[in-house]
Design goal:
heterotrimer; A: 158 residues; alpha+beta; Glutaredoxin; 2 domains; 4-stranded mixed sheet; 7 helices; elongated; C: 596 residues; alpha/beta; Rossmann fold; Ubiquitin-like (UB roll); 5 domains; 5-stranded mixed sheet; flat
Chain lengths: 158, 121, 596
Amino acid sequence: MGEKIAEKDMVRLDELLADLGSQRGTLIPILQKSQEIFGYLPREVLVRISEKTGSPLSRIYGVVTFYSQFHLKPRGRNIVRSCQGTACHVRGAKGILSELKKELGLEGEEATTKDLGFTLETVACIGCCGLAPVIMVNDETHGRLVPDSVKGILDQYR
Amino acid sequence: MVIKNLDDLRKIKETAKQATSARHENGTQVIVGMGTCGIAAGARTVMTAILEEISRRGIQNVSVMQTGCIGMCQREPLVDVVRPGEPRVTYGNVKPEDVPRIISEHLVNGRIVGDLVVAKI
Amino acid sequence: MEKLARAHVLVCGGTGCSSSGSKEIIPEMRDKLKEKGMDMEVKVVETGCHGLCELGPLVIVYPEGVFYIRVKPADVDEIIENHLIKGRVVERLLYREPATLATVPDYDDIAFYKKQKRYALVNCGHINPESLEEYIGADGYEGLAKALSMKPEEVIGEVKKSGLRGRGGGGFPTGNKWQFTRAAAGDKKYVICNADEGDPGAFMDRSVLEGDPHRILEGMIICGYSVGADEGYIYCRAEYPLAIKRLQGAIKQAMDTGLLGENILGSGFNFTIHIKEGAGAFVCGEETALIASIEGRRGMPRPRPPFPANSGLWGKPSNINNVETFANIPSILRDGGDYFASQGTETSKGTKVFALTGKINNTGLAEVPMGITMREIIYDIGGGIPDGKKFKAVQIGGPSGGCLPEQLLDLAIDYESLTKAGAMMGSGGLVVMDETTCMVDVARYFLNFTQDESCGKCTPCREGTKRMLEILNRICDGHGTDDDIPLLESLASSIKAGSLCALGQTAPNPVLSTLNFFRNDYEAHIKDHKCPAGVCAAFVGYTITDNCRGCGLCKKVCPVDAITGEIKGKHLIDPNKCIKCGACQAKCPFKAIDKG
């Protein structure tokens, strides 16, 4: 099982559901905001959303697994997105991604570091193609990268 | 303020145009391109360097502003300098260490920093 | 008698330079010269004011007469070491003749802008995007004011007259779309702005949203007025946090000033706008999938008809346009449709924004009149291919588009000509590729993308793209067979014919266009077991030659620790570990790493 869920976060979830739960078309915003609170979407949270909104759990699960933004497993405190867009692809994104994996010590399909410091994922395009190759750390975009630049950038968030 | 009709809109337009031209006549503007590309290329640290340099030198009558992406990603970060009554001059690939030069050469002394300049409007 | 000095160092001791620190430079210079035993051959002289006090302290070195500015005591070492000992001028301290305003080119004269015509992007990079006043000062909301003084039908007439077509990819005439929504029965209607810019390589929408957010609001309000809607949604991808922030700010300003809300500009017309953040699914760029996503469901497309114009968001008539389309509306209303229509070609009017990326000198956004040639965009605006490499192809239209070769560079670009050439306008992303790009790898890249983003609802797209990707992987891995090319072509035509939405219908395009123009690349992989561009890992390997001096840089830069070797000894690459990223080759100062 994942980490224990803090009671105060559940209170925030209930406030959120009281605010948005009865409006139509709000499932995705509710999930987005819940993920902001918990960092990911634990089962207990999805169950609570289902109870309060009346949406079947299966439907909520269907939405969560459809969109790449939602995560069912705990994630790192910092999210590193390595852009694999066309412009980045032809300008060496592959080398940046391997350097990120090496620098974060991630093996194979692993995405999150053991200390939950970082989660590494790929993204199709972050629309910053003029500076390819680029990565995004949380909401900050870093461009014109070479493998050598990776460590310096990660260090800013360590 | 609420814009109730076309006349109100025109009034704001006039004031806005005057404000822009007044800025041009009385004070100097430094404009930093702060779209995602600019920020990714380092526009935020350049902006900080500009604000620090201006306050360090105690320069008055300068407004430091931001604008969106002008589409010249290759030259980001972009910094524009407008002196009263003069064209808007764009500098490209500006690094924080270039800022003191742009401020003292162009802003204070009106001399273009030739190796960084891109174009003027 | 004093020995004749071989060099003189003149340090300005004028009031200006002294106050900025020249007094410390003189003793420092003398001490350091003495240390090096050079005090007899180099003479340090204190001079009077040169009149360039703000650049001081000034140091001039003779006999060359080199003029250094803003010299600090810490720079003395460098001047001695480099200039006086090695005869190398210290560039960073050099005085440069100031450029004058007259020598600075105008924006309109520099190559990047000369052929551009900024219409949708006119304010981007010029106004402060967070200031409503600046937008109004740049003629903002004047198009809206004019529209509200006209009948809704007349507004639609003006949009039709402009000839504007959907800028998101399909190219459907915007005026007709508005007409359908207006004509649809229903008292509740919606306007939706598609800001889910998902095509890899396209970022013009982000640029407008970040740089000129009020323009999009104005376009949407005008649309709402003419189709009879009172509510709008902007569906923006979550990967654009700055765009969302600027939009939220703009909506608040417009609400506070009454440009959104009730009785806009005293017309009696009401309109509000909400933002919906996408949750990361490329297929949501398709209009029916986008609507499903706003409703909080899985973003899967449904068959059309009914079109959203009749049954859209929550079953109500809805008009969906993309960001760039809305960005053109305010000026069309303000200047009239005829002006817009005076630009462009017979079938494609106005301007189009292209995102220039990849192997090109000037990356960026270029807004040009329709009908311009690809050669003009790539060579005149984009400045050509870097590093003296040869142009190979330009990919246009993202995963739905195709690759155009050298021989089509003089094609006049519009919706029809591109479709005919096997590509597509798409959202206007142009990714330029040079001779080091493998076209099979590019096709595989796009198939990997569409296969990943296929929502899985219809079989041709879900299974077909997967099979095509398997074949492409096989070819790139060196296991291609003679049957693979015909098999790809037959699968492609089935997927195009059988898929439910545009994602599937266009997914085979990158494969078909590369097969059409770059068949040699495929055949080389299959028949000759070669990747001519040297990209596909199965066919290339890196080896270290005897030029290696054992500096260890390659070992340090290798992301997978595939390089071993002792300092000063020849290094070795383990081909099993090597991922062929080329980082070692780029880093090696002795050109000791071969690719073959």
